[in-house]
Amino acid sequence: FHSPMYFFLSVLSFLDICYSSVVTPKLLVNFMASDKSISFKGCVVQLTFFVVHVTAESFLLASMAYDRFMAICRPLHYSSVMTTGTCLQLVAASYALGGVNSALQTGNVFALPFCGPNQVTHYFCDIPPLLHLACADTATARVVLYILSSLVTLVPAAVILTSYSLVLVAIGRMRSAAGREKALSTCASHFLAITIFYGTVVFTYVQPHGFTSDTSDQVVSVFYTIVIPMLNPFIYSFRN
Fold first, then answer.
1. Where in the cell is it found (predicted)?
2. Residue 76 and residue 71: Cα distance in Å, rounded?
């Protein structure tokens, strides 16, 4: 492929299409149809694929930050480290972690009994509104949700913050103004996309129960399920 960054961008576009497609078609059907129901199996499948792709994107963004770190801070080692094999392994690892997190999160939710109200106060089968429907104590399930969501958010975020901190130090040491401008423009679009993505995910999943309302959760969810996938191509075009 042309370069690791363009390869990662193509994978990012694929992930955006995938997890947006899990949600958007059913949302459009609900707008036009009087019957807004979804089967139990359909809900399981929707949640499973959604968590897989959102988690994979979280780790992919960390891989992209590492790529920028190598390109700017270790340019002489870049071609030998960021090989085709390394890039493929990073993408495969992102998907594998997405699969593990999805299996744990989905199992955590649907192990609960659902014998009461069946109206999901959301536009897709997301974890917090499903926990509201369980007719059992969800304290343990919420702790599991918080721990897993924190891990798949904060671990990549730590990699990203560390990478970009070192990148900023390296940029500050550059003597050429043109070099600093080029390096900053390369990283600015990525950092903007990261800030929007992680901000909305943390707001939705890594917060105490009852801290937000159903309406605010839905509004924020629209951003990371529909708006962000639409904006990413425009955001990343800034660097070109």
1. Cell membrane
2. 8
Is 105 buried (19+), middle (13-18) or exposed (0-12) by CB count in 10 A? buried
SS (H, E, C) the chain: CCCHHHHHHHHHHHHHHHHHHHHHHHHHHHHHCCCCCCCHHHHHHHHHHHHHHHHHHHHHHHHHHHHHHHHHHCHHHHHHHCCHHHHHHHHHHHHHHHHHHHHHHHHHHHCCCCCCCCCCCCCCCCHHHHHHHCCCCCHHHHHHHHHHHHHHHHHHHHHHHHHHHHHHHHHHCCCCHHHHHHHHHHHHHHHHHHHHHHHHHHHHHCCCCCCCCHHHHHHHHHHHHHHHHHHHHHHHHCCC
Contacts of 221 (CB under 8 A, 6+ apart): 122, 123, 124, 126, 200, 204
Q: What is the pTM of this model?
A: 0.85
Convert the pLDDT of each residue in 225-236 to its tens digit. 777 787 777 776
Please state, in angstroms and rounded to a whole number, the distance separating the CA atoms of residues 65 and 63.
Answer: 5
Across the range 135-144, mean pLDDT stands at: 91
pLDDT in tens, 44-68: 999 999 999 999 999 999 999 999 8
Instruction: Please name each of the domains of the chain with its CATH number.
Output: 4-237 (1.20.1070.10)
